[in-house]
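S1.2 Input.
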Amino acid sequence: MNTEIEDLTRMLPDPGRPELPPTRHRQMRDHFVREIGRRRRRRPRLLLAPAAAAVLALVLAFVVLRPHDAPAREVSFTTAPVIRVPDATAQGVAETLGRIADAAARRPVTAPPPGGFAYTRSVVSSSRPERERTFGGPLEPIALHERQAWIPGDASGKGLIRENGGETTLFPARDVPTYDELGALPADPEATLEWLYARQGDRSPARAFGQVQGLLDETVVPPAARAALYRATALIPGVRVVRRTQDALGRDGVGVAFEANGERTEWVFDRSSLAYLGSRDYLVRDSGRGEAGTVLSAGAVLAQGVTDAAGRLP
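S1.3 Output.
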């Protein structure tokens, strides 16, 4: 009997690693930071499922720390908006991302000075589990609020996030590519995609999509490299185009999307200029976390620039 079971087991497909949508990683990171602040007088603990912890370790570009005596953040909760889930299609993915890439290649970018920082001011909303240390059940939506980010242009500096009345220090990981390293990306999209797969250590489409978002979000990337990453995204299996969508401020645009575990992550681009406006993450089917169309997180870029010190405006 045991031999028969073993034979049948070997016939089953490899279950693989559970995937998390790219925007979920920021929610997990933010929840981690809030847990530290909430429990600062006790030994901080956060229990994650092994798969979720492994995914979080793979995609976090920075180690997030707060001072031991930092004040707790002023977090405001709200009711999660529910949208009509827009149609997503595989038709026109290469054409759409090609036009976005062409526009990005033409858009001038100021490189961070030596030891400098990329600055982004945005408005964001997110959500956290209603019950502590769980990521599969009902969520508490965090209201739209302003966020300021100073991300170092190389691996030597400490970044800074200001939001909800508090500050977070970002300590860069060793494998974060610098501005110059990104500038050396190959122009060939297939080669760029292979570079992404090599960095993440597997060929997971969800991780590749999330990795591109991590490289482009709140950072300064050379125009040619940004274009190469967009063209490589068109080759990632499962990427879709959303013809009509909106960012967190209601600005209309066209979306580039990826779905995993019943959630869709969209990058939103201005319909005319094809400039990046922001992103949002929402449920595409009913689940324990909410009904289809529930927005889990969203962000809209207000201003970007470079500066020579964290905390200093451009």
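S1.4 Remarks. Residues 2-307 form one domain.
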